Amino acid sequence: MKNFKKIIILAFLSCFVMPALAQKASWIWYPGDFDIYMSNVMQNRRTERGSFFPVFWKMDSHYVLVDFHKEFNLSQPEEVKLFVEGTYNVKIDGQAISGFPKTIQIPAGKHKLSLKVYNQAHVPAIFVQGKTIVSDETWLSTFEDKEWIDQSGKVSDKSGTTFVSAGSWNLTDPNQLPSQFKLPVKPMAAVSRKKNDGGELLDFGRETFGFIKVHGLKGKGRLSLYYGESPEEASSVEKCETLDDVDIDIAQKKDSVMPLSKAFRYVNRQTTGNVTLDSISMLYEYAPVTERGSFKSSDAELNKIYDVAKYTFHLNTREFFIDGIKRDRWVWSGDAYQSYLMNYYSFFDAPTVKRTLLAQRGKDPVTAHINTIMDYSFYWFLGIYDYYKFTGDQKFVQDIYPRMQSLMTYIDGRKNKDGLLEWMPGDWIFIDWADKLSKDGEVSFEQLLYARSLETMALCAKLANDSEGVAKYDKQAKELKAKIFDLYWNQNKNALVHSRINGKQTDNVTRYANMFGIFFDYFTPEQKLGVKKNVLLNHKVAKITTPYMRFYELEALCAMGEQSYVLKEMKSYWGGMLKLGATSFWEEYNPDKKGAEHLEMYGRPFGKSLCHAWGASPIYLLGKYYLGVEPTTPGYETYTITPNLGGLEWMEGKVPTANGDISLYCNKKEIKISSAVGTGKLRIGSKTKPVAKGAVIKELSKGVYEMTIEKGKDYSVKYSG
């Protein structure tokens, strides 16, 4: 069992932290198929009070018959081992080998090795292991292997088949079938046990996730486990969101592990009949990511906010980036988009970004928005170009571009007569959980995301060498942006109005489109100042109460240099949750609520998630807008560092990249920087010209200076902040 766990951990670690293994043999499949398969497995684990709770949207599946091949030019013969999940045949240069060979000999010279795999239950996958011949993403794959025969009876090579690069997760153990993949676990004990009526209440110390393990279980009757993120939830046998009821008939003591993982801090154990047990522990299930990003400052409360945010994010980083660990555990696109951004400033776990994007998109034909939500389709587009910006992985953009095209074609086909998007049957316009938030008519927020997605399509079309697409999407984006300001900008309100109904502006101004317009850089400088004053800093405009949209609201303010204000808001909002005993950050927090009201949502007393990925946004804000590190060309080939203390005495941290970390320390008199990647530009404001040994500092404007940062060098900059 120990070796089995070790294999699982090593295989999954390679997905996250060992990209150098990409050229070694790994399991491969048709791109996106295993991502779709595993997301189906994960998302269909959801239960509510013991009942199966499936997703709301169409679920795709893997192709059941897939052809894999690659051409090799060998200087000498080579023995190759084959591992296959499914029924298969093997061909060398088009000639089939009889049976189901486990080892084959390939002669010297140029040859083509092909495997065709059928598997209805699981994803067709292969693992090929030789001295130089190994399975990886350089192999080609197709689900439509058309072998056309000409009039002479010979197989034609003009089949019309589309071959694409194979997909993988870098699962590098040939003896561990992809379908058997599981996250690693480790044992953890409760920190306290208190007797209650008929059982006991266990406290595991903080929010956690995994499988309950019952030790020394014996007797006949029923074991009931009621899970809770709060003691109130676990103690409510009638209203807690998740539970396990197990009928027991065991003569001799044995240990038993519950079959489904759960999120909890507290567990209420109850028994009937003569059931007894010795103790209860848990198997903590986790994604073995490496914590590369860091942040620490002179403010102890802010440091705790950062640490709890990172723990929250880690709990919601699983096979994919999910929304929350208690309730849905689904791959929601809006939640995942924020997770990508937080990830780039913490784990820099690029493979899970790709997996999540592929799983969300599924397959053609497109019949609905991603997760059925209009805005969530747009976040999906934005996530792809952001991935390229942070990683420099152009191949992924090229591979997924056809799926981008088909989704955009679907969206373009749903425009109304004015060229705008509005609700249609089958759509869900979400925006945010907010009382009295109108979704009627043509909502400006959706048009803004649509324009940004078209701009993203133009950028990705260029990367995919689609010149017609570049021109098409660029034209659409410019026309839509102009239309947005013609139809929604209200000069008297100095803001974009929330919507149009029956061709007329509504009077309603909300924060959503306006704050996105700031960090999308859609406004003129004058418009930005107007929006900041009349919307973002205007307490008469409806407040945002979810961390989801606080993320963007605070980003917009940071983008306008309001780090001091945002620091106070972070300490008030996230610090408010900590003062209420939070050990992870919540799906929603309204400071005006009291007591058990904080646990309510969706009309249920414990419906709220107290560990939600979108609650972890300080990770992103502190990395991008306080440490101030951001790529300016893909993969951090070039980048900027614009530190902003925002009222702190000092701060320090690391920002990870694909090729190393960027480290920064900053107080009001000195900045220390070291970088393992690219060429950076440090930009700082100083009352006097900064001084740094071995560096040239130039003045960009009055009191603003710039200095070049070269990789592998350490810098100490003296300045007067």
Shape: globular
Number of helices: 15
**From the alpha-carbon coordinates, what is the Rg to the nearest angstrom?**
28 Å
Largest sheet, strands/sense/barrel: 6 strands, antiparallel
Mean pLDDT: 94
Low-pLDDT parts are 1-22, 153-157
Instruction: Give the total of beta strands.
Output: 33
Q: Return the structural class.
A: alpha+beta
Helix content: 25-40%
What percentage of amino acids are in beta strands? 25-35%
Largest beta sheet: what is the strand line-up? 6-5-8-3-10-11
Straight-line distance between termini: 58 Å
Describe this structure in words.
The protein is built from 15 helices and 33 strands. By secondary structure, it is of the alpha+beta class. Helix 2 (33-43) crosses helix 6, helix 5 packs parallel to helix 7 and helix 11 (511-519) packs antiparallel against helix 12 (525-536). The longest helix is centred in the middle third of the chain and has 22 residues, at 467-488. The radius of gyration is 28 Å and the shape is globular.
List the helices and strands and how they pair.
Layout: H1 2-17, H2 33-43, E1 47-48, E2 51-52, E3 65-74, E4 78-85, E5 87-92, E6 95-97, E7 103-106, E8 109-118, E9 125-129, E10 140-142, E11 164-165, E12 185-189, E13 192-196, E14 199-228, H3 231-235, E15 242-257, E16 262-271, E17 279-285, E18 294-297, H4 300-315, H5 333-344, H6 350-361, H7 374-391, H8 394-412, E19 442-443, H9 444-463, H10 467-488, E20 489-490, E21 495-496, E22 499-501, E23 504-505, H11 511-519, H12 525-536, H13 547-559, H14 563-579, H15 618-626, E24 629-631, E25 638-641, E26 650-657, E27 660-667, E28 670-675, E29 679-685, E30 691-692, E31 697-701, E32 704-710, E33 714-718
Parallel strand pairs: 25-29
Antiparallel strand pairs: 1-2, 3-8, 3-10, 4-7, 4-9, 5-6, 5-8, 10-11, 12-17, 13-14, 14-15, 14-16, 14-17, 18-26, 19-22, 20-21, 22-23, 24-25, 26-27, 27-28, 28-33, 29-32, 30-33, 31-32
